[in-house]
Amino acid sequence: MSLPLLEVSKLSVEFSTEAGVVRALDEVSFVIRPGETLGLVGESGCGKSVTSLAILGLIPSPPGRVVGGQILFNGRDLLSLAESELRAIRGKEIAMIFQEPMTALNPVFTIATQMGDVLRRHQGLSRKQARAAAIDWLGKVGIPSPGQRINDYPHQLSGGMRQRVMIAMALSCEPKLIVADEPTTALDVTIQAQVLEEIVKLSEEFRTAMLLITHDLGVVAETCNRACVMYCGKIVEQSPIAALFAQPQHPYTSGLLGSVPRIRSDRLERLPTIEGMVPDLLHLPQGCRFGDRCDKAQDRCVQSQPTLREIGDERQVSCFYPNSHD
Amino acid sequence: MNEAASMDNRLQAAEPRPGESLWAKAWRKFLQDKLGMGAFAVALIYLLIAVAVWLGLMGADWNALGDHSLAPMSAEHWMGTNRNGQDVYQRAIYSTKTAFEVGLSVAIMSTIIGAALGAVSGYFSGGWLDEIILWLKGTLDSIPFYLFVAAVAFAMCSHPYAMHVAMIATFWTTTARIVRGEVIKLKSFEFVEAARAIGLPQSLIIFRHILPNTSHILLVQATIVFVSAIKSEVILSFLGLGVQDGVSWGLMIAESTQEVTVGVFNNFIAASAMLFVLVMAFNLFSDALQDALDPKKVQ
């Protein structure tokens, strides 16, 4: 087992709102090793995107604030770096792919200008070299006739192409880690598959590690080596991908997997759902945050909070009564 | 032309062509606006006149004293002469240069200042820098304009550019307010976050990534400031607070107040007509520009 590239430990982030302080991340810990793809799964508002922004030091502050923990990247604590040192890492060593390709490119500049900016800044290329490199990268992400497309403005490209441009931009400085925040959510299903394939192929080719944030379990199953399941700002389960799908340990994970529609089912049946609502982050229960909605909950679950514990073979779960328990 | 064909034409006009910039697209839309093009042509003619005066090709004799005062129109004096026997046509032409000098310098300077301060205060909205800029803007806005010009003229010992300084100092506020609002909107867009995520410093994000997205607003705003600067120059010159050496439509109208009492309207008509046509043309032009540059108006 190699040394971790990124080690997030006990990361907590708070947002102050008018109604009070909201803890968006509560002691989140995970590691990413070089070349590995880690999935971060969870429903809207569980803290996935906040995690990615925290890694890049982009939490809007105020109102956000990192209140605890460490983010070690290649042995350096990103949280203790000065803004100028962080800027040298952003884009060059950690790149980000955004959710909305429609708005993530600057509408008034051509692709050539935008990609050229990144390459000149981080790779120290000349204008000409940067342009050649950009064309080369556009070709690699599967954009047809990149030599012409590079002169286009974002509004002249389709959503899938824009996302490919974003990927090309993220990869062009050959970062060690890519943070992909729902990279395929805004695309339609056929394009999704193509774009994912492209991301996976290129990250394998360049041995780039990736943190893939998504709410789509299908995407995780296809692309990730390991996955963390988040609920209400906490990681509730962490596991290698095959084991996670074969034997989910946390009741929330089983619930998520259960609520994926199955096409091959013979009969028409009602899609199972997880009963209840995500608790309000301002009024969290004293016990397990999933307790209200869990059908296995006991008295103990209401009284105290389970912590993430090892249950063997790189698997961690934060539940008093994980599925293998019974 | 039937409905379908004209619709087809319009669709073609709006559809981007490969490698075409937003500017080229706006220009194509602008070319189709007949009124706007006409106004643009008139504005260009004025510009040519101003350049010709500057080069000494036209209006060179504006200050020459003739033999006859209040002479009627003739082949020698196209618009007659004024009280001092100076050629009204030459003076009206020369005034174009005066107007453009004020209009251009004020439009360019107040747009640059307004854009820079507006962008900074929008980007840091809610912060102390924003507070300072807003305070400055509010203070300058609250002073009555003519009083302010008089004060600046006095403070600068009636320096010929006192009027320019006073206008630049007050006209940037409108531009800054508009840019600030637009930047507040733009900074929440993902491309700004993406610019941060690729490690760009804030100055580059503000001025290279966000500000160019407001260039259509700046351009329209500059033409509006240009016209208001010219109008203000005429009014100030009429009041004696404006042009000190040289001549301006405002000075001509001031002269004419004594001439009209004896029934001579040449000075008054020449200056008013020149001003009216210029202001009208520029207003129509900036309207057309606004339509052409507005990305939300799909024609």
By secondary-structure content and strand pairing, the structural class of chain A works out as alpha/beta
Q: Can you give the mean pLDDT of chain A?
A: 84
SS class of chain B:
mainly alpha
- The percentage helix of chain A is 25-40%
Helix content of chain B: over 70%
| Inertia-based shape of chain B | elongated
Oligomer: heterodimer
Task: Extract low-pLDDT stretches of chain B.
Answer: 5-16
Indicate the proportion of strand residues of chain B.
under 5%
| C-alpha-based Rg of chain B, rounded | 23 Å
Please give the alpha-carbon distance between the first and last residues of chain B.
17 Å
Question: Can you give a write-up of this model?
Answer:
The complex is a heterodimer of chains A (326) and B (299). Chain A is 33% helix and 23% strand. Chain A is α/β, with parallel strands linked by helices and 326 residues long. In chain A, β11 (309-310) and β12 (316-317) form a beta hairpin. In chain A, α4 (111-123) crosses α5 (127-140) and α5 packs across α7 (159-171). Chain A is globular, with a radius of gyration of 21 Å. The relative contact order of chain A is 0.14. In chain B, 71% of the residues lie in helices and 0% in strands. Chain B contains twelve helices and no strands. The longest helix of chain B is centred in the middle third of the chain and has 36 residues, at 88-123. The model of chain B is unreliable at 5-16 (pLDDT under 50). Classes of the chains: A alpha/beta (326), B mainly alpha (299). Chain A binds chain B through residues 56, 58, 84, 86-92, 95-96, 98-100, 103-110, 117-118, 121-122, 148, 151-153, 155-156, 166, 169, and chain B through 16, 18-22, 189-191, 193-201, 209, 212-213, 215.
